[in-house]
Amino acid sequence: MAIGGAVTTGRKARWALVDVIVVVYALFPVLWIVSLSFKSKETLSDGNFIPREWTFQNYADIFATNEFIRPLINSLGISIIATLIAVILGMMAAYAIARLDFPGKKLLVGISLLIAMFPQISLVTPLFNIERELGLFDTWPGLILPYITFALPLAIYTLSAFFREIPWELEKAAKMDGATPGQAFRRVIAPLAAPGVFTTAILVFIFCWNDFLFAISLTSTEASRTVPAALSFFTGTSQFEDPTGTISAAAVVITIPIILFVLFFQRRIVAGLTSGAVKG
Amino acid sequence: MAEIVLDKVTKRYPDGALAVSEMDIEIADGEFVILVGPSGCGKSTALNMIAGLEDISSGELRIDGARANEKAPKDRDIAMVFQSYALYPHMSVRENMAFPLRLAKVDDATVRSKVEEAAAILDLTQHLDRKPSNLSGGQRQRVAMGRAIVRSPKAFLMDEPLSNLDAKLRGQMRTSVSKLQRQLGTTTVYVTHDQTEAMTLGDRVVVLRGGIVQQIGSPQFLYDHPANLFVAGFIGSPSMNFVPATLEDGSLKTPLGTITLTDRVRRLAEAADAPREVVAGIRPEHFEDAALMEESHRQGGSTFTATVDVLESMGAEKYAYFTVEEELATTAELEELAADAGATDVPGTGSAIVTRLSASSEAREGQPLDVWFDPDRIQLFDPANGTNLTYSG
Fold first, then answer.
1. pLDDT value for B28
2. CA distance B83 to A141
3. Nearest to B89 among A175, A177, A275 (CB)
């Protein structure tokens, strides 16, 4: 008994140590930014992890100008719209890939994989030219469209894995119960795929929210500039002033929606939602 | 309620595999028909074609006299119970059972009363607000049944609905399925690989092998008059014993000794133009411990003596297993049956004669025993094509 207890305690301690290392490693840069955002201009570079004097001035500053609020609205709007469209299209494509046998299925999967692997930087110049010609440059659709393109492969892959998990017999049962294919999808398959849909939505949203490359290349004004791009245009009150404090504050603020998004949907991602459908 | 007619219905897959070949079945209104056969015999494919879940390659399916080949499942008004139950896990029991009615746009009050009526029949009333994941296997099975009966369809299709239940529950559910069907009087097509279910449930049984109908008839008729070796081996548990035999001047030379055929059997065999080499089949229950037979009765039959290999006492009866000197009869049909029963995985089980004796038999393992059997019960089969040479249907 004593030996068993010792082993358990030892193992627990080892796990705790590993956990702490991982968490510190992952969170340290974030905490550092949080710390910077609460420092006053004078103490910014004093090297203390815990600010000697706490101030909310940086937060007050970023919300005082349109320089941050407008990009925040752009970011939210563009990311949410792109996520919605990508997830809906991805659901349809993933369902087809998981359930139907159609000519060119392998090709479709291959191409979507190819898009995911394509180096995005090589597309920036062509996209820039195309969007200027089409009048999409520096507009919301100008960012939403490329985001959908690059989020779709991710969405299709994640969702088709979830669709494959849903017993096919449920769909047959729905058909026998008098459902059209559309009704079977909406009322039986889609609700069961919900955890997958939310997971995918989170991943796609984070992808759109964090994008810097397209945001900086395909926008020029506050009409469509998103937060990651806007951050790089932050200046101090004078050109000699270092905007580190305000950038940190903005970085903290834009992390919050992601945390909220994940926390909100996490409860929905319950494992074993399909349990009880079929035997076992 | 409806009659269902399969007229030369064939299913051929795109890769050329023939799953069901020219199946002709007429199912009368209110009849309970069992499709039975080993795995891969096409019984589930046939059921799916009736349901509309699989296309019919050729032939015609008629429900209530109207061609239904091209009808979508939802337009056939048929309910199906799946082997896996296929309950909707995100819906409560009530919602699961109400689902077909909701799709049919039935008003709320009617849905409520119909669901509660079905729940009462199936003893599910206190579970109506639970989710399928919180139900036991038997309860889930009943919910699946409830979803089928709630909208009073023209017919029920059941695809091995009891095979996921444990043995005791299966027995109980078998009785309640049978009772339910009689109560509702709905045409039912029931697929199973379990010959016990086939024997006990159906009005008529359709035995399938390799997509071809072997025989259609009442359970008792199939048991008494199997059309061929396959049906003979499939129906009955434990299955019929088969030994190679030689017909010579009205007597039969078998590993169990030379048997004088009764007039009835001899006439049937002659009428069927039986070859010299045949397969003789006799059911385990047609043997008896000779010591228990009255002398007068004993005269009418044949007796052989062999050493009991294994004795299984079931309480009400005893199963005695003997090994015969010569090889047992083997044909393609019998090999398929053996493979389906898993006998090929267990060495040595294939070559034994099984006999069912009275519980009062004093047979002992390792001891020789006189075993009596009635030669009139012997059935002879053509080893070339499996036809029953003594068929008298």
1. 94
2. 49
3. A275
